[in-house]
Write a structure and sequence with these properties.
binds 7N-methyl-8-hydroguanosine-5'-diphosphate, disordered N terminus, Arc Repressor Mutant, subunit A, 28% helix, binds magnesium ion, 348 residues, alpha+beta, 8 helices
């Protein structure tokens, strides 16, 4: 990787791009991976979720305190972890398979969340992802191990919008869709006050929160079944399969005496990240000043992230693993994998 320093020189400054030094990676590995519950260390598919946590910590906190450090994709970060950490290094030759299995496994984990309707039952709350060109989706996310559907929904909605739906959630009011191997369940939470100051609780996951008109959501698509544009030109992810059943639910549940406002309510942004580059904070917009929701093409473009090469330094590529691979290589799915703790202790 030409021009990229190995960390630790201290010569960098803001704007330079240094890879994280080995000691930092080892530290993140022991804090986030080796400290994970033992039953989670049995398969790489689960272990990589802990590597992902370490990656978020690196991107959200370590990098902000050390501006010479380079932003990395999860794959690049994971690869560096495997090259640098003694516990992972024995498995480096399987890295491509391990990473591929993880991404496949990730898309099979059930997802739950909520469709929050405003008091008029005309609009629902959607969140927009962080990355450039991200789509709008219902607040939702993957279930943790042994987590109940409704607990996951409450947690994900809290993480992505800062709103606690636990008191309003009714187990029976949900819509469920199965796409491929993934099950998605969204609880319908109706009558949410529009002046609630929504704001995500995680960094760099959500860039915008807005009320969208239900009748402006896409109902079918000629494009890929998951990602596509709605009638307003906005991009949506995994929204359209829920829209027709949602409209039916609204018809059946909308209180008959509900006062419909004279003019139709507009889609409005209620929270937006202030500084895309650092993701340090965002701004809640009071209802009186809520900004109209506009198609992506008319919005200020987000700061493009610097293209990152996924190549490793020659130093990393030539590093010889200090331990030889385990005699029994893990199976393809690495499901029965377990860290060799004796080996790790020996290393220490
Ligand atoms: P997720 O939690 O993996 O998905 O987040 P889920 O909510 O569907 O379960 C989706 C994406 O948002 C991730 O792949 C990351 O790119 C980003 N992301 C999520 N979280 C919680 C964080 C975080 O804490 N920090 C950073 N930097 N990115 C995050
Ligand atoms: Mg989430």
């Amino acid at each position: 990787m030409a021009g990229v320093n190995r960390g630790g020189s201290g010569a960098g400054g803001p704007g330079s791009s240094t890879l994280p030094p080995q000691e930092l990676l080892e530290d993140l590995c022991s804090r986030f991976v080796l400290n994970a519950p033992e039953e989670e260390l049995r398969s790489f598919e689960r272990i990589l979720f802990y590597v992902e946590q370490a990656h978020w910590f690196y991107e959200d906190y370590t990098m902000e305190q050390n501006q010479y450090l380079k932003s990395l994709t999860l794959r690049e970060f994971t690869s560096l972890m495997f090259h640098s950490c003694s516990a992972l290094r024995p498995y480096i030759t399987h890295f491509d398979d391990i990473y591929k299995d993880f991404t496949t496994y990730k898309t099979s984990v059930p997802v739950t969340g909520a469709i929050m309707l405003d008091e008029s039952y005309q609009r629902c709350l959607l969140v927009k992802g962080w990355k450039a060109g991200a789509s709008w989706s219902f607040p939702r996310g993957k279930k943790n191990k042994d987590e109940e559907d409704c607990d996951c929904a409450v947690r994900e909605v809290w993480e992505e919008t800062g709103y606690d739906v636990s008191e309003k959630l009714k187990i029976e009011d949900h819509l469920e869709v199965v796409m491929g191997v993934q099950r998605m369940r969204l609880y319908i939470i109706a009558g949410v006050n529009e002046s609630i100051p929504f704001a995500p609780q995680t960094k760099k996951e959500i860039s915008e929160i807005a009320w969208h008109r239900v009748d402006e959501l896409p109902v079918a698509s000629n494009e890929a079944p998951s990602h596509h544009r709605g009638p307003t030109g906005l991009k949506y992810f995994m929204v359209f399969p829920f829209v027709t059943p949602l409209k039916k639910w609204i018809e059946e549940h909308c209180p008959p005496g509900l006062q419909r406002p004279g003019s139709p309510l507009q889609g409005v942004t209620v929270w937006k990240v202030k500084n895309m580059a650092s993701g340090a904070s965002g701004v809640s917009i009071p209802p009186s000043q809520a900004t109209p929701l506009l198609p992506a093409s008319t919005l200020r473009p987000s700061t493009p992230s610097t293209p990152i090469s996924s190549t490793l330094t020659s130093e990393q590529l030539t590093q010889t693993p200090v331990t030889s691979p385990p005699e029994e290589p893990p199976g393809k799915a690495f499901r029965n994998f377990r860290f060799d703790f004796a080996l790790i202790l020996e290393q220490l």
